[in-house]
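Query structure, 137 tokens:
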């Protein structure tokens, strides 16, 4: 499977661990990562995913980010908006897009403790969904 990964640079101490784990898992799963795109934050992920999904060689996209709880509702707005747009893009292009964006209502400590798991599961889910979709053809 030929994939791309979009990773947010915001909270890079967390997202770099996610990316390292995702790349390792992709290698173990014999998946070819054609492109890793780095974006400023979670709200920039959907546009980048859309550009990648337009490429015929890209069979799916894994997304990685960390939305940390703050003093306002901003984390909820960012996480929900990102997730909804990614679902919309997956449906529009009929290609799998997985959500490896942690949050909302997650502390930095919680996000750090789950970073590797998010990266791994995002890739495993991408492979599983691609196989499920293939079986439906």
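Result returned for the query:
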């Amino acid at each position: 499977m030929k994939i791309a990964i979009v990773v947010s640079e915001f909270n890079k101490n967390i997202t770099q661990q996610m990316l390292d784990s995702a790349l390792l898992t992709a290698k173990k799963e014999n998946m070819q990562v054609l492109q890793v795109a780095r974006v400023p934050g979670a709200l920039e992920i959907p546009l980048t995913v859309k550009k990648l999904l337009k490429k015929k060689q890209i069979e799916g996209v894994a997304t990685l980010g960390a939305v940390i709880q703050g003093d306002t509702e901003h984390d909820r707005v960012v996480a929900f908006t990102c997730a909804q747009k990614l679902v919309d893009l997956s449906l529009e292009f009929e290609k799998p897009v997985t959500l490896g964006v942690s949050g909302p209502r997650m502390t930095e400590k919680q996000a750090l403790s789950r970073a590797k798991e998010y990266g791994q599961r995002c890739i495993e889910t991408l492979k599983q969904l691609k196989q499920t979709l293939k079986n439906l053809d």
